[in-house]
Amino acid sequence: MAVDGDADIEFAIDGHPMSANVSASPDIDVLLLGSDWLIHNSCQWDFVGGTVRVGERTLQTHKKVSVGACRKVLVADQHVLLEADTYFSSAEPVTLA
Fold it and tell me: For 78-89, what is each residue's pLDDT tens digit?
């Protein structure tokens, strides 16, 4: 993954101001907060309850709506073009790009 550089940013989660040191990459178009940020902010993630505790605040998580899209599927021996929502099985290794 290519990294263009690092930056200190300020943002809000459910109206609560936050900050993070992040890396910018043309390969990722969303904010990803890593385990170092979670530890630094004393976070506890309750997957069953659907909450994340950040310090003294408990925030509700939200399910990301997926469009079921894939940019490209490459099979080792041949190229295969698939329609959206198409499922296949292959004995060949598959790389998602």
Answer: 555 556 555 555
C-alpha span between 28 and 32 (Å, rounded)? 9
**pLDDT per residue as tens digits for the range 15-56:** 888 899 988 888 888 888 889 999 999 999 999 999 999 988
Q: Which residues contact 19 (CB under 8 A, 6 or more apart)?
A: 8, 9, 10, 11
State whether residue 39 is helix, strand or coil. Answer: helix
Spatial separation of the C-alpha atoms in residues 53 and 37, rounded to whole Å: 13
What residues contact 38, with CB distance under 8 A and at least 6 apart? 45
Domain ranges of the chain: 5-60
Token pair in block for residue 86:
């198409």
Cα–Cα distance, 39 to 58 (Å, whole number): 15
